[in-house]
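pinned: reference chain
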Amino acid sequence: MGWPEFVTELRAEVAELRRSDAHHRAVVDSAIDYAIVATDPDGHVTSWNEGACRILGWTEEEMIGAPLHRFFTDEDVANGQVETEMGQALATGHGKDERWHKRKNGERFWASGKLTVLRDDNDHAIGYVKVLRDRTEQRRADEERNRLEDQLRRLNEKLASDVSHRTAERNQLWEASPDLLVIINFEGVFREVNPAWTDVLGYEPGELVGQHVDSLVHPDDILSTARALRDAAVGPLPVVENRYRHKDGSYRQISWVAAPDYEHDMIYATGRDVSAAREAQLALRRAEDQLRQSQKVEAVGQLTGGVAHDFNNLLTVIRGSVDLLRRPDLTEERRTRYIDAIANTADRAAKLTSQLLAFARRQTLKPTVFDARKNILNLKDMLTTLTGSRVEITVNVPDHPCLIHADPGQLDTAIINMAINARDAMSGEGKLAITVADWDKIPAVRAHAAVRGDFVAVSITDTGEGVSPDKIDHIFEPFFTTKGVGQGTGLGLSQVFGFAKQSGGEIAVESRDGEGATFTLYLPRSADERSELETAERHDISQRHDACVLVVEDNPEVGSFATEALRELGYRTHLAADAQLAMAALSEAEGAYDVVFSDVVMPGMSGIELGEELRRLYPDLPVVLTSGYSTILAASGTHGFELLQKPYSIDELSRALGKATSPRVITQAS
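pinned: its C-alpha cells
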C-alpha cells in the first residue's frame, strides 16, 4: 500500500471512530433517568452524561477530572465506601450499592447504583463506569407504607392480646395517633373512630358512629370505595385513596390501608390526609403543562425563524444569479450555470414549502399508485440507523403487491416518525416489527364506526413501555407528548395522523401500560393493477401541440407566465382572471377549448367549485388544477381532478396538460 492509500484509509478509520463515538455519546446522553459516569483507574471522572447533570446537579465541565467521591456522603467517604466499591468491581466485575448520596446543592437523596470495571483487550483495568438512579421517592413511599402497615400490624397485635392489656395499649395508641383510625363492619358502617377524626375532618367521634362511609365519601368515589370495602373483607387492602368530606364542606384526600378481623366481622383501617401532597403534585403538573405550552410557542418561533433564514439564503442565490445573467458578454457555459443555480434553488424552495405545509397539515399531497411493500423494504436500512444497534427490526410483507394511492414521500415520513416514537418508548433497546398486510376494514376508533373496504395495513409494533389509557386519546394531537418535559414536541405522530386522514385512511393504536404498543396505518388499496411508475410514459417537452387552453388565474404575473409558457409549447391560450370570466368565455365560444387549466385559490368561486360546475355543464372537457396551498385540497383532496402543484416546471406543465388532452385529441381524430 502506498503512502496516499495509507493516508486515505487512516482518515476513513478516524471518521468512523468519530461517528461511533458520537453515536455512543448520544445514546448515553439520552438516558436522562440515569446518571452514567465514567472514571479513570484512580476514580477521576472522564465522562458525565445528561442524566448525571440532571440528577446530581454538577455540569460535565465541573466534574471532568473531579474524584468520584464528590457525590458520596461525608460519612461514606470517611468509611472508604468508594474504594470498597472499586475493590469489589476489580474482584467480581462490578460492585453494587444502595445508599444515600448528595447533590451539588448539598441535598441528600437515596439512590441505587452499580460500579462496573472497564478492561482493555489485555484484561487490564482502564477505568470504571458508575450507573446511578434516584430512588428517593420510591424509598419514601416504601417507608411510608411500611410505617402504616407496621402501625396496623401493631394495632392488630394489641387488639389480639389479653383484653385488659389490649384495651390499655389500644387506647394509648388510639388516642395518640395523628392518623385516622377506624373500625367498620363489612357493610361499611362506622363502629369506632379515634380522636384524629376531629383534627383531620372536624367530626367528633360520636357524630360518626353508626354512619355509613358513603355519607362522607365524595360521590365520584363511592363505587371505588365499595370495591375497596369488598377487597378489605377478604384480605389486606393495598393502599387506596378517596375523598372524604370535611365538616366545613370541603374535601380531603385520604390514603388508606386496611385488614379484616374475621373473628369480630370487622375491618380495621388506618388513613392519612395526603391532600397537601396531591395539591403539590397538581401544581407541579400545571407547571409542566405551562412549560410545554411555552415550548409550543418556542417551537413555532424556531420553525418560523428557521424557514425565514432558509428562504433568505435561497432568495440570495436566485437574486445573485439573476444579476449575473444580466451582465453583458456572458459565455454560454456561465449562462447555463446561473440558470441551473436558479432552477435548483427553486426546487429546494419548493421542498421547504412542502415541509412547512406538512407541519401545518395544509399540504396538498402528491398521490400516486405505488407498492407499499417496496417503500417499507427500502426504508429498513435507514430505520436501522435511526433506531440504533440495540433495536432489532423485522419486516414482514406479503408476496403479492400492495398497491395504494397516496403520497409515497409522506408515507416514508410517517413510517420514520412511528419508528422513532417506538425507539424512544423502548429507551433505545428492544424489538420493532413492521408488518404490511391486506385488510378488509378500518376498525372502530376514536368514536368512529368501523369502515368496510379494501385497505392495506402497515403496522409497527414495539416492546416499549406502552401508552396509558388516559393519554391514548391525545397522542395524535399536535405538541402532545408522553415524553418528559423538554424531551419532545409531539409533532411526529401528528404528521402521521394528518397523512392518514388526507389519504382517506386512518391511524389506530393498541397499547397497555408496560406491554408495548402497535400503531397501524390503514390506507385505501388502489384499484389499479399496476403502479404508476410501471405504466407512466415519459412526456416529451419538445412535442408540439395545437390544443386550446383556457387559463384561469387571478395573479397577473402567474397568468402571463402560464400563457406564455403554453404558447412556447405550441398551445393556443386564452387567459381569464377568475372563474366567472372563465364561465363566460366558455359560454361565448362553446367547443373552442380543449382543456381548462385553473388555479384553486381565487376570489369568489374557487378552482374546485369551477371544476365541479364544468364537470356538470361540459362533462367531456378536461380540467387541470394548480395550487401551492389550499385548505380545501388539504381537507378533502382533489375531487378527482388532475393536480399540478406550484411551483411547477415547464416540463411538469407540459406533462399535465398532455396527459389531460391526449385522450380528447385522439377521440377527435378518430
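why pinned: The first strand starts at residue 35 and ends at 39. The longest helix spans residues 275-325.
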